[in-house]
Design goal:
Blueprint lengths: L1 E5 L3 H13 L4 E6 L11 H5 L15 H4 L2 E5 L3 E5 L4 E4 L4 E3 L2 E4 L3 E3 L12 E3 L3 H14 L3 E5 L3 H12 L3 E5 L12 H12 L4 E3 L4 E5 L6 E4 L3 E4 L2 E4 L3 E3 L2 H5 L8 E2 L11 E3 L4 E4 L6 E3 L3 H15 L13 E5 L4 E6 L11 E7 L4 E8 L2 E8 L5 H9 L48 H4 L4
Parallel strand pairs: 1-2, 1-7, 2-3, 7-19, 9-16, 10-11, 10-16, 11-12, 18-20
Antiparallel strand pairs: 4-5, 5-6, 8-17, 13-14, 14-15, 20-21, 22-23, 23-26, 24-25, 25-26
Length: 445
């Protein structure tokens, strides 16, 4: 079998590894327009401010491709798909034939259409190469002031990294709060105050209207006539699923590449996974892009199984799932963390200690946890996330949900997809020589 994977991040790399584990003889090729080996995008801010070297971002070893007998075509661009011929047409004219193809092409940054975008000093903050270019520009131009457009996760990571580098940073956000897609107003205010204590200025309810300068960026204008001096602008105002390849190949496109529960695109030989797809969210039931690392990893593995014909349904997409810690304050949101006016059937249980900067919020419907936000104290966040993922009925424990002793101990009959804490110990492990015989206990031949 010839497997071709376009994309070298969470979904693509984990799909390749799963394929190799299941098939020692298959031909597996990974195509990526980026030259770097597989790395974590969510860590590039730590590279920008010096907390990590480039190799600290890699989530596979340097020998990964060799050890798994995977052919990496890095720094190579897939131009189009020839579906009748079952081949990927590369920008250099090469054709890669496939039996099964996985589109794990991710998402790409978007910018508002404003005057001045052609000026030097304007960057995205999406890739490791973006971070390298920003670092070089900051050093070459002795940047002292910067503006970050967008106060989502990426924008605030960029702002924090620049601030740590000694640059005066202003963040401009068109919404009424920071992290509008991930957190509610109370939790976002706690995080905003923490960031502002470092000297980061955050301007809400305003939009960038132009970038100004003669031969390079000198300032930006927000609103009608407010100018902010700067020599560097970073756009972090959102991403959009990369659908061009799929669209030009006449695959089904909506907000992302449309896939079914088997991560198939409608073409029996083409699958898609990761940030580029649109799939039904397990909590809300709505179809939406699935842009989280956790989901991408699982989708890559499920896609690999389905590419081999195992027909494994994937239904675990939880759209909003983010953890942040810019300074000393940790926060996490999971599932449906915000309630809109039309969501009248949902119930909210919360606890807020303003002095300690601790905020906990749980969202329920039909006795099931549907979402959560923890700010300041996230020690048991994994437990609540498991309740959401496994759809555990918590109706009998509503009065205890946020009490300190509420834990897995209340759910002895549930295994949360793992070996339960109260599972019977295999008899062979009770032998005095269990350690020497542990391979037999584990079923290892």
């Amino acid at each position: 079998m010839r497997f071709v994977i376009i994309g070298n991040s969470a979904a693509g790399v984990n799909a390749a590894q799963e394929l190799r584990n299941a098939d020692k003889d298959a031909q597996i090729t990974i195509v990526s327009s980026e030259k770097d080996m597989a790395y974590s995008r969510c860590l590039i801010s730590r590279f920008l401010d010096g907390r990590l070297k480039a190799d600290g971002l890699y989530f596979k070893t340097r020998n990964f491709y060799h050890n798994y007998n995977i052919k990496p075509l890095l720094g190579k661009t897939a131009l189009s798909l020839d579906r009748p011929a079952k081949a990927v047409v590369m920008a250099d004219g090469e054709k890669l034939p496939y039996d099964k193809l996985l589109l794990a092409v991710g998402a790409g940054p978007i910018r508002p259409k404003v005057p001045g975008l052609e000026l030097p000093g304007i960057f995205n903050f999406y890739s490791l190469e973006d971070a390298r270019r920003i670092m070089k520009y900051v050093k070459d131009k002795l940047v002292k002031e910067a503006v970050v457009v967008g106060a989502g996760f990426v924008g605030l990571e960029a702002a924090y990294a620049l601030c740590k580098a000694g640059i005066k940073v202003t963040v401009v956000e068109r919404c009424a709060q920071i992290l509008p897609a991930q957190f509610d107003h109370i939790s976002s205010e706690i995080i905003r105050e923490d960031l502002e204590s470092l000297g980061i200025e955050i301007i809400l309810d305003e939009s960038l209207t132009s970038v100004n300068g003669e031969s390079a960026v000198e300032s930006v204008t927000i609103g009608e006539d407010t100018d902010i001096a700067c020599s560097l602008v970073i756009f972090a105002s959102g991403v959009r699923p990369n659908v061009l390849l799929a669209s030009e190949a006449k695959l089904n496109i909506s907000k992302g590449i449309v896939v079914d529960e088997f991560l198939n695109t409608g073409d029996a030989d083409i699958f898609a996974a990761g940030d580029c797809i649109e799939i039904e969210d397990a909590v809300t039931g709505k179809r939406q892009p699935s842009a989280t690392w956790f989901n991408a990893v699982l989708q890559g593995k499920f896609a690999a199984l389905n590419m081999r014909g195992e027909a494994k349904r994937y239904s675990g997409a939880i759209g909003i799932q983010n953890s942040v810690q810019f300074h000393r304050l940790a926060a996490i949101s999971f599932g449906m963390s915000q309630i809109m006016d039309e969501d009248l059937d949902y119930e909210v249980i919360s606890h807020y200690n303003k002095e300690q900067k601790i905020y906990k919020k749980l969202v329920l419907k039909d006795n099931l946890l549907r979402g959560m936000i923890f700010t300041g104290d996230i020690l048991k966040a994994g437990f609540y996330a498991a309740l959401i993922r496994e759809k555990i009925d918590v109706g009998a424990y509503k009065h205890k949900l946020l009490e300190p002793d509420f834990s897995y101990a209340y759910f002895r009959k549930e295994n949360f997809g793992q070996v339960g804490s109260y599972a019977v110990t295999p008899s062979c492990w009770q032998s005095p020589s269990w350690f020497a015989e542990r391979s037999l206990c584990m079923g290892i031949k």
